Amino acid sequence: MLNISVLDLVALVDGKLLSGQPEVGVTNFASLKEAQRGDLSFFKDPRYEAQLLSTQASAVLVPTDCPHAPAGVACIGVADPSRAFELIVESYGVQPVPFKAGVHPSASVAASAKLNPAKVCIGAHAVIEEEAELADGVEIAAGCYVGRGVRIGRDSKLFANATIHIGCVLGERVILHSGVVIGADGFGYEFDKGRHRKVRQSGIVQIDNDVEVGAGTMIDRARFGRTWIGEGTKIDNLVQIGHNVVMGRHCIVVACVAIAGSAVIGDYVVIAAQVGIAGHVNVGSQSKLGGRAGVTKDVPAGQTVLGFPAVPANEERRRIANVSRLPKLVARIRELEARLDALELPASR
After folding, report:
1. Lower CB count within 10 Å: N or C terminus of the chain?
2. In the predicted model, what is the mean pLDDT of residues 19-42?
3. Among all residues, which ones are annotated catalytic?
């Protein structure tokens, strides 16, 4: 639990006290807007300067060149307030449950599963099916399901009720949050004789090292081959990734994105919230897809797109600006029509 003086915080983050009293005590964390006396917060984004000036926090981490200091607040100057705040939280905030090797008595572990019970952690009511392989340091939380032949690399972690279906492969240090489903059937049907006939999905999902997948996200198995998520990619909650999608390294995918089957995403791509990507589309490396964009055709590498259908960002911004002018344009046209009618009226008599 946090209980530390401002002076000690300055030493911990290698900062400089810009204002306020060094003996002030800090006992909790809060945002600038919600902070009360005794709380520590941080300020980095200029958009929140008004909240900084009105905050009730006892101490705030600020940039070393911060021009304004709120009255009665201890301001600690640091190079990166966000990172310094994270360092303090890591030291004094709520700590994760430490790894503790062992298999809970209620867990169901197949005899043919390959694991070292002294070097893995398997929680209550988890199921590990036949021929699954768990490397050392793997954590399987309560209620998880690990299907037949699944392979999970070192130090990977499944939070409660995550599911990995048959044959899928996870690399090292992969994190799956609660409710994630890896390897459910891809959505594949053919219309045949008046009915939707299911097309067998016989591939796998491969997730490379250091990928993190948010709660409730679904990554479907391939029809053949693999659905593949590249190293270091971070995927938010409630994302749907279809069969045979290939996603590159170190991508960011924000909440409620849907990516249809066989789309190919390059490296270092940023996909904002609620984006939809059509099947078989190629998105080039280092491109950015703005929130709610509908990507229906290929996106070149390095391009930023917006809108539906998605177009280059500058083009979409011009369109939005023109749309905002329409009410005035309509009013102007009506005024001109009225003037024209007034000019034509005497002639018609």
Report:
1. C
2. 94
3. 243
